[in-house]
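Journal club prep — side note

Before the paper discussion, L.F. wants everyone to see what a predicted structure for a comparable chain looks like in token form. Sequence:
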Amino acid sequence: MRRRFRIIATPDPQALPRIIGVFAQRSLIPAMLSARRQGDVLHIAADFDDLDPTMASIIAGKLCETVLVAEVSCDPVDDPASAGALRTVRLAS
């Protein structure tokens, strides 16, 4: 099942390399990756095929620990209403 990470980060030149580094450490290549700056916020989306819920949870946790990341969510793309939907959020303090 395809899963989509939605990440909100500080618009800093190091934000994207740090986030992509979390995926690279696990040898994961996104099926889709997009980034868009809106004012003082950087919105990033990354889709991964065949990513199991346990691994998605681990990655979401690591992303939450990443400097410059304010918020992370991860949900199945095929069926967002699925009971297996994973949501991890860290709000900036």
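L.F.'s comment for the group: The CA atoms of residues 2 and 78 lie 7 Å apart. Keep this in mind when we get to the figures.
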